Amino acid sequence: VLYGERLGLMLDYIDPDAQHFIDCITLMFKTTSPMLYLPPALLRHTGAKVWKDHVEAWDGIFNQADRCIQSIYRQLRKTPDGDQKYPGVLASLLMLDKLSIEDIKASITELMAGGVDTTSITLLWTLYELARHPDLQEEIRAEISAARIACEGDVEQML
């Protein structure tokens, strides 16, 4: 939805840039909590490791946003207006040309970071609930098996 394409994070091979982004998000969340107890200015002034790690994580997150913005911008310049499927939120914001690149970058970064956090928590909760209810696991498994047979294994049609 954000980029108008799949990121490929469920494949056997994960792009190193995507993995670096995930690692940066993890580090950002890990360093946020300890920073709630001391003023950021103090941490910055003393050069605390938690501060340096936090800044490094955000730099990585913003660099990923920059790469995505540049990639989408190049695609938009190559593709005529009518020849594109759903372009995604980022491309739509760029095409509207109503926000500055910095505002778009900030918005995309927040959406990317928030998407990672909310997806992981929701998935964890879902797996926990399925583990608590084996009967639902069987029901879901039967439903998926029936859909796979009906759609002759075509995953997109199953959806």
What does this protein structure show overall?
There is one protein chain. The chain has helices spanning about 15-35, 40-45, 50-80, 90-95, 100-130, 135-150, 155-159. With about 160 residues, the protein is mostly helical. The protein has a domain at about 15-115. α1 (about 15-35) runs antiparallel to α3 (about 50-80) and α3 (about 50-80) crosses α4 (about 90-95). The longest helix is centred in the C-terminal third of the chain and has 32 residues, at about 100-130. The protein starts with 15 loop residues before the first helix and ends with a helix. One of its GO terms (biological process) is C21-steroid hormone biosynthetic process.
Oligomer: single chain
The number of helical elements comes to 7
Mean pLDDT: 83
The amount of beta strand, in percent, is under 5%
What's the β-strand tally? 0
SSE class: mainly alpha
Task: List segments where confidence is low: pLDDT < 50 over at least 5 consecutive residues.
Answer: none
Distance between the termini: 16 Å
Radius of gyration, taken over Cα atoms and rounded to an integer in Å: 20 Å
Percentage of residues assigned to helices: over 70%
Q: How would you sum up the major sheet?
A: none
Shape: flat
Order of helices and strands: HHHHHHH
Pfam families: p450
Organism: Carassius auratus (Goldfish)
Family: Belongs to the cytochrome P450 family.
GO molecular function: cholesterol monooxygenase (side-chain-cleaving) activity; heme binding; iron ion binding
